[in-house]
Automatic annotation (TrEMBL):
DDE Tnp4 domain: residues covered: 47-205
Keyword field: Hydrolase, Metal-binding, Nuclease, Nucleus
Family per similarity comment: Belongs to the HARBI1 family.
Keyword Metal-binding included in the entry's annotation: yes
Presence of keyword Membrane: no
GO molecular function terms attached to this record: hydrolase activity; metal ion binding; nuclease activity
Provenance organism: Riccia sorocarpa
InterPro entries according to UniProt: HARBI1-like, HARBI1_dom
Listed cofactors: a divalent metal cation
Subcellular location(s) of the protein: Nucleus
The protein, known as: DDE Tnp4 domain-containing protein
Source domain of life: Eukaryota
Protein backbone atom coordinates (compact mmCIF):
# COMPACT_ATOMS: atom_id res chain seq x y z
CA UNK A 1 0.00 0.00 0.00
CA UNK A 2 2.83 2.41 0.86
CA UNK A 3 4.52 1.76 -2.49
CA UNK A 4 1.30 2.39 -4.39
CA UNK A 5 0.72 5.62 -2.47
CA UNK A 6 4.24 6.82 -3.24
CA UNK A 7 3.78 6.07 -6.94
CA UNK A 8 0.55 8.06 -7.03
CA UNK A 9 2.22 11.02 -5.29
CA UNK A 10 5.15 10.91 -7.72
CA UNK A 11 2.69 10.91 -10.64
CA UNK A 12 0.78 13.84 -9.20
CA UNK A 13 3.93 15.83 -8.52
CA UNK A 14 4.98 15.31 -12.14
CA UNK A 15 1.84 17.27 -13.11
CA UNK A 16 2.59 20.05 -10.64
CA UNK A 17 3.66 22.56 -13.29
CA UNK A 18 0.38 22.09 -15.16
CA UNK A 19 -2.08 22.17 -12.27
CA UNK A 20 -0.25 24.06 -9.56
CA UNK A 21 1.82 27.08 -10.52
CA UNK A 22 2.18 30.79 -9.87
CA UNK A 23 0.32 32.71 -12.60
CA UNK A 24 2.31 34.30 -15.41
CA UNK A 25 1.99 37.97 -16.34
CA UNK A 26 -1.21 37.44 -18.35
CA UNK A 27 -2.67 35.27 -15.62
CA UNK A 28 -1.94 37.88 -12.97
CA UNK A 29 -3.53 40.57 -15.12
CA UNK A 30 -6.70 38.48 -15.37
CA UNK A 31 -6.81 37.95 -11.60
CA UNK A 32 -6.19 41.66 -10.98
CA UNK A 33 -9.03 42.57 -13.33
CA UNK A 34 -11.42 40.44 -11.30
CA UNK A 35 -10.43 41.97 -7.97
CA UNK A 36 -10.45 45.48 -9.42
CA UNK A 37 -14.22 45.07 -9.74
CA UNK A 38 -14.29 44.38 -5.99
CA UNK A 39 -12.31 47.52 -5.21
CA UNK A 40 -8.80 46.06 -5.08
CA UNK A 41 -7.02 46.74 -8.38
CA UNK A 42 -3.66 45.02 -8.45
CA UNK A 43 -4.64 42.11 -6.20
CA UNK A 44 -3.28 38.87 -7.71
CA UNK A 45 -4.03 36.45 -4.87
CA UNK A 46 -5.66 35.87 -1.51
CA UNK A 47 -3.50 34.61 1.35
CA UNK A 48 -4.59 32.95 4.58
CA UNK A 49 -3.44 30.26 6.98
CA UNK A 50 -5.21 27.07 7.96
CA UNK A 51 -4.45 24.41 10.55
CA UNK A 52 -4.01 20.80 9.44
CA UNK A 53 -4.65 18.62 12.47
CA UNK A 54 -2.28 15.82 13.45
CA UNK A 55 -3.64 12.73 15.16
CA UNK A 56 -0.72 12.54 17.61
CA UNK A 57 1.70 14.79 19.40
CA UNK A 58 4.94 15.06 17.37
CA UNK A 59 7.89 13.40 19.06
CA UNK A 60 10.27 16.39 18.94
CA UNK A 61 9.18 19.76 20.33
CA UNK A 62 5.62 18.51 20.44
CA UNK A 63 4.42 21.44 22.53
CA UNK A 64 5.11 23.86 19.66
CA UNK A 65 2.53 22.04 17.54
CA UNK A 66 -0.23 22.63 20.12
CA UNK A 67 -2.48 25.25 18.53
CA UNK A 68 -5.12 27.71 19.71
CA UNK A 69 -7.82 25.08 19.15
CA UNK A 70 -6.10 22.69 21.58
CA UNK A 71 -4.97 20.32 18.83
CA UNK A 72 -1.57 19.30 17.49
CA UNK A 73 -1.31 20.65 13.98
CA UNK A 74 0.66 22.19 11.14
CA UNK A 75 0.12 25.75 9.94
CA UNK A 76 -0.40 25.78 6.17
CA UNK A 77 -0.30 29.04 4.22
CA UNK A 78 -2.61 28.99 1.20
CA UNK A 79 -2.73 31.53 -1.63
CA UNK A 80 -5.53 31.20 -4.16
CA UNK A 81 -6.91 33.07 -7.16
CA UNK A 82 -10.42 34.25 -7.99
CA UNK A 83 -11.45 30.73 -9.05
CA UNK A 84 -10.38 29.21 -5.70
CA UNK A 85 -7.42 27.50 -7.35
CA UNK A 86 -4.35 27.25 -5.14
CA UNK A 87 -1.43 29.10 -6.71
CA UNK A 88 0.97 28.68 -3.77
CA UNK A 89 1.13 26.91 -0.44
CA UNK A 90 3.68 26.57 2.33
CA UNK A 91 3.51 23.87 5.01
CA UNK A 92 5.68 22.47 7.75
CA UNK A 93 5.55 25.08 10.50
CA UNK A 94 3.99 24.10 13.85
CA UNK A 95 0.37 24.97 14.51
CA UNK A 96 1.27 27.40 17.30
CA UNK A 97 3.11 29.67 14.84
CA UNK A 98 1.46 32.91 13.79
CA UNK A 99 0.37 33.22 10.15
CA UNK A 100 2.83 36.05 9.52
CA UNK A 101 5.70 34.04 10.99
CA UNK A 102 4.86 31.11 8.73
CA UNK A 103 4.64 33.29 5.64
CA UNK A 104 8.01 34.86 6.47
CA UNK A 105 9.57 31.39 6.49
CA UNK A 106 8.26 30.58 3.02
CA UNK A 107 10.17 30.84 -0.22
CA UNK A 108 7.59 33.31 -1.48
CA UNK A 109 8.47 35.83 1.22
CA UNK A 110 12.06 35.95 -0.01
CA UNK A 111 10.80 36.71 -3.52
CA UNK A 112 8.17 39.34 -2.80
CA UNK A 113 10.16 41.91 -4.77
CA UNK A 114 10.68 39.58 -7.73
CA UNK A 115 9.47 40.93 -11.07
CA UNK A 116 8.73 37.32 -12.04
CA UNK A 117 6.03 37.07 -9.38
CA UNK A 118 4.57 40.58 -9.28
CA UNK A 119 4.26 43.42 -11.74
CA UNK A 120 4.23 47.03 -10.63
CA UNK A 121 1.31 47.75 -8.30
CA UNK A 122 0.42 44.09 -7.74
CA UNK A 123 -0.02 42.58 -4.30
CA UNK A 124 -1.65 39.88 -2.16
CA UNK A 125 -4.70 40.43 0.03
CA UNK A 126 -4.62 39.18 3.62
CA UNK A 127 -6.37 39.62 6.94
CA UNK A 128 -5.19 41.39 10.09
CA UNK A 129 -2.83 38.52 10.98
CA UNK A 130 -0.42 39.95 8.42
CA UNK A 131 1.32 43.31 8.13
CA UNK A 132 0.85 45.91 5.36
CA UNK A 133 3.66 45.93 2.81
CA UNK A 134 4.09 46.97 -0.80
CA UNK A 135 3.16 43.44 -1.87
CA UNK A 136 0.73 42.68 0.94
CA UNK A 137 -2.46 44.61 1.69
CA UNK A 138 -4.28 43.56 4.84
CA UNK A 139 -7.16 44.66 7.04
CA UNK A 140 -6.75 46.84 10.11
CA UNK A 141 -6.19 45.12 13.45
CA UNK A 142 -8.00 47.92 15.26
CA UNK A 143 -10.40 50.38 13.72
CA UNK A 144 -10.82 52.62 16.76
CA UNK A 145 -14.34 53.41 15.61
CA UNK A 146 -13.00 54.98 12.40
CA UNK A 147 -15.78 54.33 9.89
CA UNK A 148 -13.39 54.48 6.93
CA UNK A 149 -11.34 51.67 8.48
CA UNK A 150 -14.47 49.71 9.30
CA UNK A 151 -15.66 50.07 5.71
CA UNK A 152 -12.24 49.03 4.37
CA UNK A 153 -12.22 45.93 6.58
CA UNK A 154 -15.71 45.04 5.35
CA UNK A 155 -14.59 45.37 1.73
CA UNK A 156 -11.47 43.30 2.27
CA UNK A 157 -13.45 40.59 4.06
CA UNK A 158 -15.87 40.46 1.12
CA UNK A 159 -12.99 40.06 -1.34
CA UNK A 160 -11.15 37.51 0.78
CA UNK A 161 -14.08 35.16 1.32
CA UNK A 162 -12.88 33.25 -1.74
CA UNK A 163 -9.86 32.01 0.22
CA UNK A 164 -12.10 30.72 3.02
CA UNK A 165 -14.17 28.89 0.43
CA UNK A 166 -11.03 27.50 -1.22
CA UNK A 167 -9.72 26.06 2.04
CA UNK A 168 -13.17 24.75 2.95
CA UNK A 169 -13.50 22.92 -0.38
CA UNK A 170 -9.95 21.59 -0.10
CA UNK A 171 -10.58 20.05 3.32
CA UNK A 172 -14.04 18.81 2.42
CA UNK A 173 -12.68 16.91 -0.56
CA UNK A 174 -9.63 15.49 1.18
CA UNK A 175 -10.70 14.51 4.68
CA UNK A 176 -7.15 13.50 5.58
CA UNK A 177 -6.43 17.24 5.92
CA UNK A 178 -8.85 17.27 8.87
CA UNK A 179 -6.64 14.82 10.76
CA UNK A 180 -3.41 13.36 9.39
CA UNK A 181 -2.58 10.08 11.10
CA UNK A 182 1.07 10.45 11.91
CA UNK A 183 3.27 11.41 14.82
CA UNK A 184 6.00 13.29 12.90
CA UNK A 185 8.82 11.35 14.51
CA UNK A 186 11.53 12.56 12.14
CA UNK A 187 12.32 14.85 9.20
CA UNK A 188 11.42 12.12 6.72
CA UNK A 189 7.88 11.82 8.07
CA UNK A 190 7.55 15.61 8.10
CA UNK A 191 8.56 15.75 4.44
CA UNK A 192 6.08 12.98 3.63
CA UNK A 193 3.21 14.93 5.22
CA UNK A 194 4.16 18.05 3.24
CA UNK A 195 4.15 15.97 0.04
CA UNK A 196 0.72 14.65 0.98
CA UNK A 197 -0.64 18.17 1.45
CA UNK A 198 0.94 19.24 -1.84
CA UNK A 199 -0.76 16.38 -3.70
CA UNK A 200 -4.12 17.29 -2.15
CA UNK A 201 -3.63 20.83 -3.49
CA UNK A 202 -2.77 19.54 -6.95
CA UNK A 203 -5.89 17.34 -7.03
CA UNK A 204 -7.98 20.26 -5.76
CA UNK A 205 -6.83 22.44 -8.67
CA UNK A 206 -7.39 19.63 -11.14
CA UNK A 207 -11.02 19.30 -10.02
CA UNK A 208 -11.56 23.07 -9.98
Amino acid sequence: MVNYTNRVMIALESCMGQEFAWPDRQGRATIAEHFAALGFPGCVGLVDGTLVKLSQRPRDDGETYFDRKSNYSLNVQVICDQHKCVIYFFAGMPGSCHDLTCLKRSGLWRRLDSAQLFDRGQYLLGDSDYVPLERLVCSYKRTGGDMDKVFFNTCIAHARVGNKHCIGILKARWHSLKGIRTQLRNARENAYVIRWIRCCNILHNFLI
